[in-house]
Amino acid sequence: VLRSLSSDSQIAQNRDLIHMIGVTGGKVETRISNAANDATYLLADVEIVATYELFNINRVRLEALLHRFFADARLDLEIFDRFGKPVRPREWYLVPLDVIDAVVKAVQDGSISTLKYDPALADLVKR
């Protein structure tokens, strides 16, 4: 889970709520080393705010599950990459970190299917 250090006013005003949720097979530090030049990371440096180790789980399927779970909270933002091409980053969500932690725990204990994310409440609710 990453937080953008962008100086863009939309992002800076909501910095504590905007998080990138993704899964990588390598070191997060390596993956984000060029963040300031990559539209995926909103062309800004990022900070790592949470990491979770995965065991016996398909990381691609887990990432897809998390992205579907938080789909209603996806950040709707268009930025221009360093070549002037419009990009809509798809892995950024308006979700508090404690809710992301709770969802990870729900995946671990198998209760994820009993929950949904309510963007209006910025919290989990029972299905």
Structure characterization notes:
With 127 residues, the chain is an alpha+beta fold. 26% of the residues lie in helices and 19% in strands. It contains 4 helices and 8 strands; from the N terminus they run βαβαβαβββαββ. Strands 1-3 form a two-stranded antiparallel ribbon. A two-stranded antiparallel sheet has the order 2-6. Strands 4-5 form a two-stranded antiparallel ribbon. Strand 7 and strand 8 form a beta hairpin. It starts with a strand and ends with a strand. The model has no long low-confidence stretch (mean pLDDT 94).
Helix % is 25-40%
**Low-confidence regions:** none
Let me know the average pLDDT: 94
Distance between the termini: 25 Å
What's the shape?
Answer: globular
Q: How much of the sequence is in beta strands?
A: 15-25%
In angstroms, what is the radius of gyration?
15 Å
H/E series: EHEHEHEEEHEE
Main β sheet profile = 2 strands, antiparallel
Strand order of the largest sheet: 1-3
Number of alpha- plus pi-helical segments: 4
**Count of extended strands:** 8
Query: Which structural class should the secondary elements be placed in?
Result: alpha+beta
Question: Summed up, what is this model?
Answer:
The chain is built from four helices and eight strands, in the order βαβαβαβββαββ. It has 127 residues and is α+β, with helices and mostly antiparallel strands. The strands form four sheets. A two-stranded antiparallel sheet has the order 1-3. A two-stranded antiparallel ribbon has the order 2-6.
